[in-house]
## 1
Amino acid sequence: MKRPLVASIFGTRPEAIKMAPVVRLLIDDPDIDFELIVTAQHRGLLDDVLELFQLTPAVDLNLMQEEQSLDYITAGVLNGVGAALDRLQPDLVLVHGDTTTSFAAALAAFHRRIPVGHVEAGLRTSTIQEPFPEEFNRRAVDMLAAQYYCPTSEAAANLANRGVFGGEVHVTGNTALDAVRVAARDDYRFPDELQDYTRHVGPKLLVTSHRRENWGSNMDSICEGIKGILSDHPTAMACFCWHPNPQLRNQIRSHLGGHGRVLLTDPPRFDAFVNLMRVSDLILTDSGGIQEEITMLGRFALVLRRETERPEAVAAGYTRVVGTAASEIRNAAREELPRLLRGDHPHAPSPFGDGRASERILEAVRGLLLRAGLG
C-alpha cells in the first residue's frame, strides 16, 4: 500500500523553529512519506534553523528580495507553492502560525482541495490590524484548515467562540517549547561576539523588536525607553538583536549606536538565542515566540505591544504588556527589574505545555490520514 505523503511549508525563522520538532518526527515516521517546502521569505535567518535542525528542503523557492512587499511575498508563495503541490501531490499540508507564507501556502492547498493542518491555531487579538498582517493571516488559515493544533485550551475556545469551518480541534501545547527543550543547555558556549554581554556582571537586558506596527515612531520610542532603563541602572547592559531590515537598523543605530552599554547584533542562531534568554535578567520584545519560549526558561518579558494574542503568559506571570511609549517601558522596568535581580522569576508551570506538542501533532496527523484511508 502506498504511504501517505505529508508536506510542510514554511519560510521564516519563527516558523522553522516551531515546525522543526514536528518535521523531525515526520521524517522518522516509517508509515509516512514527507517533503519539506521552504519559501525563504527570510533567507539567512531561515538557513540557520535548517542547519541547526539538519533539515534539507525538497523545494526551496528562494523568494527573498531586498525591501520585498507583502504583495510580492504573497504572489510568489501562491505561485511557487502551487507548482510544488502540483508536482508532489501531498495528501496533507502543514503550515504554521501567522506568516504570509502560511496564509498563501494554505490558500494554494485549498485551491487543490488538499487538507491543511494549522500548527499554532486559534490565537487571537481583538483587532485584525494588530499584529499586522499576522492577525489576518492566522484567521484566514483557520478558515481553510481541516485540523487545528492549538497550543492551549484558550486558543481552542477562540475557534469555538468565533466560528471556524468544521476542522478537527486538538489541544497539543506549543511546539516552541519542544524546540527550547532541545536547545537549552547548561554547558552552552556562546560565540565570541556575544561574550561581552554574557560575561557582563551587571543587569542584562535582552531586546528584540521587529513588528511592522512598530516601524517608525514606535521604534524611536522603544529605543528611548531602553536608554531610559540604562540611565536608571548605570551598571546595566543591553543586547539588541536587531532585524536585518536596513531601514530598521538605521533607525535603531541613530538612537543606540555608539552607546557604551548597548550591543547591537545580528539575530543569533536559535540555540544561542535560547541560552541568551537564560542568562538575561529582563527581556523586552514584541515577538510572539519569545513570549512562549520564556515560559520554559523561567524568564520574564516586557511585551512591546498594545495587546498580545498570548494572554496565558500574562496570566501566569511571565509577561507584562507595556506598549511602546518610552515612559511606560522605563516605568515598567523600574518596577520589575529589582525583583528579577533578587531572583524572583516566575515559577508557574508553562501555560503552553510540556515540550511534547510535536508528538501530539503527529498523533493527530496519523489519525486524520487513517480516517481518510491513507494510513
## 2
Amino acid sequence: MDSLTHIALGACMGEAFAGKTVGRKAMLWGALAQSIPDIDFLAALWMDTPSSLLAHRGFTHSLLFVALITPFMALLAERWHRPHDISLLKWILFFGSVILVHLFVDAFNNYGVGWLEPFSAYRISFNAIYVADPFFSIGPGVACVALIWLRKKHLKRRFWWKFGLVTSGLYLLYCTSNKLQMDHEVRYLLDKQQIAHVRYFSTPAPLQNWLWYVVAGDDQGYHVGYHSLFDRDSSIHFEYFPRNEFLLDPVHERADVRQLKRFSQEFYTVEKWSDTLVFNDLRFGQVVGWLAPREKFAFHFYVNRPADNRTVVQRGRFAKWDREATRALWQRIKGD
C-alpha cells in the first residue's frame, strides 16, 4: 500500500496499544513500525533499476527481517519510556504485529512480497486490492487525523482507533470476496470463449475494486481484457499481445534482462518502438486500457536505454488520465 496508508494504520495500532500510557508517542511508534519495511527504497540510491525492483519488498518485507528488527525496536521503546508498566514482551508483540500487518497488507496487491527472503525468491501476491485504493485508506486516514486532534484523555479516542482498524479490515475482506468472485467468473468465461492459457491473473484496475484487469496466456503471448463485477455480458473482450521473445535474443544473457523476467513472473511481452527495444511487465496494467484496449502497458522498460528507466513503475500508471479517461473508467465499472 501507499506510505500514508501505512502510517495511518500504524498510528491507529499504536494508539490501541499504548495511547493511554505514552500518549501520542504511541502513534509515532506505530507509524514508524508500519513504515520501517519500506526502508528498502534506499536501494535505488546505488542499485540499477532492475536490481532495485527486486530489492523492493524483498528482504525488508520478509519474516526474517521482522524477527531481527522487532527486538531492536522493542528494546529502544522500552528504555525510552521508562518508567512505565509495559513489559518488554508486550513491546515485542506490539512491534512484531504492526510490522507483520505491513507485510500482510502489501501482499494483497500485485507487486509481490518476499516473505521468505533470503531463503526463497518467491513473491507472494494475492492481487486483491490496488496499491493505492482510497476506499481502503479513508478509514484509517480519518481516524488518524481525529486521534491527532483529540486530547490524550478524550473518551472518543478509543472509538477512532477502532474505526480506523475495523473499516480497513472489513474493506480488505470485501476486496477478497470480490477477488474470489472475479476469479470464478473469469475462469468460467475463459473456458467458454475457448481461450487456452498456462498462466492467468486478475487484479483491480486503478483506485477501486469493481473493475478488474485480466491477463491469460502462455509463452507465445497474452490475452488482456477488463471485467466488471457488474458486467451483464457473458463474455470478455480480449486483446491479444504476442510475447515476441525472439526480440530479446541479442540481449537475453544480460543480467538486467534476466532480472526483469524474474520480476515479471513470466507475465511479459517485448516490442520494438522505432529503434527502442521495450520490455513490458503486464502485471501493472495498461495506460487507460479500459478506454483504449491497444494502449501501452504502464510498466515499460527501455532495454537499450537503461538510464531512462528510473521511474519505470510510476511513469505509465496515471499517464493520459483526463476527464474522458476518468468518465470512461466510471462507465466501465458500471458494466457492459
